[in-house]
Each structure stands twice: as C-alpha cells, then as structure tokens.
C-alpha cells in the first residue's frame, strides 16, 4: 500500500518489537530496530531471532538479507517511532516506567518535526501523556500535543499489543487494533501507520482510553481465571473432578468458565491488573482478590505434591513443563517454574524436569537433585508425574502408559 512513512523505527526488539519490526519491513518499508541488548542486536543482524516464535526466523532472514530491517543499539532519525520496551512492576506493584522513560529520552535526541511516536508497551493510564512531557523536557524546541493540541510538531499515540505468543506473526496482521491519540489527528496519523500491515479493524480513541482498554482486557482474563482456579480448590475439597464440572456447566448457553491451572504467568495477565489496582485500590477489590487467588495457586499445588512425596522413601518427581503457557519457551512469571523452584529448595525429592521448548535449565534451577531429561526417561523413572503445562508433547502422551505412577495433573490434560 502507498504510505508516506519511508523509515520506521521500532525501539525494543523483544517478543513484541521484533515481530512488529520484521512485519513492517516485509511491507518494503525501511525499518530501524533499536535495542540496548548488544547480543540481541548481533543475532538479529544475522537474520536470527533471540527467542523462539513460529515463522519469525523466516521473516527475519528475508528482511535482514534485503536490508529492509537493520538492528542497531542507538536510535537514528526516522518518520515514526514505535516503542515496545518492558513495563514490569516494582516491589509495591507500581509500574516500572524506567524502560519507557529511557527509551523516550533516547529517541528525543533524533526527533524531527512531523515525526510520530507511538507507545505499544502495556502501561498505566496517563503514560502517553508522560511521554509528551519527557520529550518536551529533552526537546524544548518541539511543540508536543499535550500542550499544543493544534498542530503539534510531534504526533503522539498509544496502541496496545494483543498478540498471542506462538501465533504472533499471524495475529500481528489479523488482530484488530485500538489506537488512542493525544489528539484526534495523532490517532489518525497512527492509524495510517498500522494500515501498512494490519488487516484487522483499527479503532480510534483517545490515549487514556486505549491505555485503559489494554489493562481491562487482561484484568478480565485474570478475574475469570481466578474464578476457575477457585472452583478447582473447591472441587479438591469436595473430592470432585473440576474439569468434568466445568465441562458440564459450560453446556449452559450463557456460561463459559475458563480452565483452572497451576496459577497465572507470563508478562501480561499476572502483571497488568496491578497497574489498575495500584493506582485505584479502593475501586478494584475484585481485581485484587483475583490476583491473590491466582498468585496463591502454586502454593496449593506444592502442598498437594508434598503430601504425595511423603508416601515415598526416595521420591522421584517428574515435572512436565516450565513455561508459563503451552508450546512457548517463555518462563517469565511462570507458575510452573515457581512450583519447580520451590520443590527444588524443599529438597524432598529428586526432580526430573522436562521442558521441550528450552535447551538448558535456567540458572535458578541447579542442584544435585535436579536434572533436565526427556519425556520418556522422566515417565520411566518417576514415582510422581506432575503435569504443569499442556505442551503438545505431553498432550500426545497416552496417560494409560503411566498409570502405575501418581499423576498430579494441574492443567486438565489427562483428567
Ligand atoms: N510478550 C507479550 O506477549 C506481550 C503481549 C502484549 C503486550 N506486551 C507488552 O509489550 C511490552 C514489551 O514486551 P516484550 O514481551 O516485547 O518485552 P521483551 O523483554 O521481550 O523485549 C523488550 C526489549 O526492549 C529492550 N529495551 C529495554 N530498554 C530499552 C531502551 N531504552 N531502548 C531500546 N531497547 C530497550 C530490551 O533489551 C528487550 O529486548 C511490555 O510492556 C509488555 O507488557 C507483551
């Protein structure tokens, strides 16, 4: 499609920024990817991703070899800047915006009148406005849209990302997008950028609403998963099968209960609701309770396992899966990793860990009684099989093969 964006910079080349940069470059636009991680930049410059995501390597190889995508460590001038850097939380669950601030201050130096700046990082309401203020401090020569709503020099907008790891390359193009501008014109300008590669609908709003929308989407998921997790705790007490109960309840035409699991992990659902709760605790008791229910689930699983471990003299536990969700290599905030780490620290059993999506165990999992093994070995040697993630390799296993062993299925694959 025809566009006046000749050069687009993507700042932060992680799970979100890298597929975005490669997708735009594949539309024949010059893309400069910026990341402070030197080794990631080197890998990308060889046409390889520094994490695993289906179809991303093919896209990278072609866009890097045609020089449409270039990875660098320092920002360069461009027509538009998309910021996709981390937004974790700090100790009291406040959002840590330091990565966003540093990224914004670094691009401020190369901004030129007419540029567009879009924040994609999940952020508390008001962050896009802060971006304008940070730029204004670095560049008093530029008119920013929070003070100069009429014809600002720089257009600033917020556009949250909703792509699902494992399907990112496809969803980047197909998903609907919400674009919130600091002004109506900023929103329209940002929309014209996404039209380069998005085939889903692009909905316009203001920056504050777009920031809120992303947070409430994930809070909605968190609250609903908490309900499912609470049901699983209740069913354990009643000695009933929660999976059967949910399956039957979902036959009601207006009921759709989600799946319980070992907790809630990942960079988004376990983190983002705090951005609402921290700023407005009195208005968000339900969201806070949901966070506590989901955060408490790993400990409940650990207690269940420890009771089983007590039955054996030299117990061997197979821990199946470490990732925070099926078929990805992402261990961030993973309840499976948290449970495995606690079992390791408790030193009550030998642990055989199976995680088909990573080559080596993380540094936090080391010890004489911790081994990374393949699925067959784990099943053969274990007294207790603890299923933590519904990876496709585990789904393919016939649970009847392991019916001599104690099975603790936290994800409902074999239940
Ligand atoms: N991963 C997901 O599934 C997902 C989905 C939706 C939204 N998000 C949000 O998108 C944002 C990015 O997440 P991610 O998963 O891509 O994170 P990530 O950690 O995979 O990648 C972020 C990248 O930014 C780089 N970076 C940090 N500071 C920088 C700076 N000043 N300049 C340039 N690069 C810098 C890091 O080195 C890293 O490579 C977060 O706010 C996250 O909540 C993530």
Architecture overview:
- It is a single chain.
- This protein is α/β, with parallel strands linked by helices and 415 residues long.
- The chain folds into 2 domains: 7-200, Rossmann fold, CATH 3.40.50; 216-409, NAD(P)-binding Rossmann-like Domain (Rossmann fold, 3-Layer(aba) Sandwich), CATH 3.40.50.720.
- It has 14 helices and 13 strands.
- The strands form 2 sheets. Strands 3-2-1-4-5-6-7-8 form an 8-stranded mixed sheet, sandwiched between helices. A 5-stranded parallel sheet has the order 11-10-9-12-13, with helices on both faces.
- Helix 5 (127-138) links the parallel strand 5 and strand 6.
- The relative contact order is 0.09.
- Nicotinamide-adenine-dinucleotide is lined by residues 11-17, 34-37, 40, 84-87, 99, 102-103, 106, 120-122, 161, 163, 165, 267-268.
List its salient traits.
eight-stranded mixed β-sheet; five-stranded parallel β-sheet; 2 domains; 39% helix; alpha/beta; 415 residues; Rossmann fold; binds nicotinamide-adenine-dinucleotide
Task: Describe this structure in a few short sentences.
With 415 residues, the protein is α/β, with parallel strands linked by helices. The protein has helices spanning 17-25, 38-45, 56-65, 98-108, 127-138, 168-174, 184-194, 207-238, 242-249, 273-279, 285-309, 335-346, 375-381, 392-395, and strands at 7-11, 30-34, 69-72, 80-83, 116-119, 155-158, 177-181, 202-206, 316-320, 350-354, 370-372, 384-387, 406-409.
């Amino acid at each position: 499609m025809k566009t006046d964006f000749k050069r687009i910079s993507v700042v932060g080349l992680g799970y979100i920024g890298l597929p975005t940069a490669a997708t735009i470059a594949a539309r024949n636009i010059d893309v400069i990817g910026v990341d402070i991680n030197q080794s990631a930049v080197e890998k990308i410059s060889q046409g390889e991703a520094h994490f695993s995501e289906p179809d991303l390597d093919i896209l990278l190889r072609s866009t890097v070899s045609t020089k449409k995508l270039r990875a660098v460590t320092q920002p360069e001038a461009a027509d538009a800047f998309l910021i996709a850097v981390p937004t974790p939380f700090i100790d009291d669950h406040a959002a840590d915006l330091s990565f966003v601030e540093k990224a914004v201050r670094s691009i401020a130096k190369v901004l030129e009148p007419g540029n567009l700046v879009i924040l994609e990082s999940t952020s508390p309401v008001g962050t896009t406005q802060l971006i304008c203020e940070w730029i204004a401090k670095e560049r008093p020569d530029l008119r920013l849209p929070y003070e100069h709503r009429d014809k600002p020099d720089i257009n600033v907008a917020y556009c949250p990302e909703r792509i699902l790891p494992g399907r990112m390359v496809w969803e980047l193009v197909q998903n609907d997008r919400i674009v919130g501008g600091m002004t109506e014109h900023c929103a329209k300008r940002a929309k014209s950028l996404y039209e380069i590669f998005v085939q889903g609908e692009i909905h316009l709003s203001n920056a504050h609403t777009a920031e809120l929308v992303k947070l409430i989407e994930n809070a909605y998921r968190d609250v609903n998963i908490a309900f499912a997790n609470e049901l699983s705790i209740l069913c354990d007490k009643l000695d009933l099968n929660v999976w059967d109960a949910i399956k039957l309840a979902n036959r009601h035409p207006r009921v759709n209960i989600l799946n319980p699991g070992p907790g809630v992990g990942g960079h988004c659902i376990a983190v983002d609701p705090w951005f609402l709760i921290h700023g407005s605790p009195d208005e968000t008791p339900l969201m806070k309770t949901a966070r506590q229910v989901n955060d408490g689930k790993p400990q409940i699983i650990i207690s269940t396992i420890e009771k089983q471990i007590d039955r054996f003299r030299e117990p061997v536990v197979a821990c199946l899966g470490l990732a925070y969700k099926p078929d990805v290599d992402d261990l961030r905030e993973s309840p499976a990793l948290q449970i495995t780490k606690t079992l390791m620290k408790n030193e009550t059993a030998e642990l055989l860990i199976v995680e088909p999506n990573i080559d080596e165990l993380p540094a936090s999992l080391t010890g004489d009684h911790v081994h990374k093994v393949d699925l067959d070995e784990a099943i053969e040697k274990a007294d207790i099989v603890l299923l933590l993630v519904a990876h496709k390799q585990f789904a393919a296993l016939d649970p009847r093969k392991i019916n001599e062993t104690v099975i603790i299925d936290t994800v409902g694959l074999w239940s």
